[in-house]
Amino acid sequence: MGSFTKWLGAGLGFTLGGPIGAAIGFALGSFVDKFEIEGFKQEQIDYDRGKPRRTTKTHSNTQSGDFEMSLLVLASIVIKSDGKVDQRELNFVRSQFLSMYGKERANNAFKLFKAIVKKEVSARQVCIQIREHMSHASRLQLLHFLFGIAKADEFVSKNEVDEIKKIAGYLYINQYDFESIKAMFYDESGNAYKILEIDKSVSNDEVKTAYRKMVKKYHPDKLRDLGDEHLKGAKEKFQSIQDAYEKIKNERGL
């Protein structure tokens, strides 16, 4: 296979098959020659048949490339949900890829993303595939990234929020976690409490308990298996927890 599909296949595990693999195959068909496509399809067949593939040092069956491809496909769904593809949203996706993956890998990923955007993909089928293989912490990180995309054009439409909420449901992310991550992208009264998944009426001890619980849930170490390139977003999410707790402490004089 050529260099592009070699890059692609090298980081994939579960996303080589299923609806995500089909979306990748569609995208490849728009700019990769037939010989390379056939090679990629053979890898998909081998994976679906359960043939042993490369081994990794991760403790789960989700590889860095799996997270990347899941991100690409889900982002393509959200970015189209308001009826248009905004350049600022595309720029956000590209900038995130650059910061995570470096120039060469980001260029490959973005090229694939722009092709995937042109395909209609079933959010439900994609999410079923993801939740069968990804940890809860990884799925929360996907949701965080999707809200970042929606906010990139400085206006989050109802359609975008509804689409992300639907995706969250398909990923088995509960309402409290959804509202917590959503609140990280808004500057509204009471959002600090939403981030910690508590009500304003709770006691000071309950605030501290909630903070400890959220620190454990969102600690970046939970995503270390996905590679250092995905820890930046995890640290941003973790910092939101710290900031929310500090804001509540200041308000209450703790």
UniProtKB/TrEMBL annotation:
SUPFAM superfamilies per the UniProt record, alphabetical: Chaperone J-domain, TerB-like
Gene3D superfamilies attached to this UniProt entry: DnaJ domain, TerB-like
Xref: Pfam families: DnaJ, TerB
InterPro entries per the UniProt record, alphabetical: DjlA_DnaK_co-chaperone, DjlA_N, DnaJ_domain, J_dom_sf, TerB-like
Segments forming domain J: 191-253
Protein name according to UniProt: Molecular chaperone DjlA
Phylogenetic placement of the source organism: Bacteria, Pseudomonadati, Bacteroidota, Flavobacteriia, Flavobacteriales
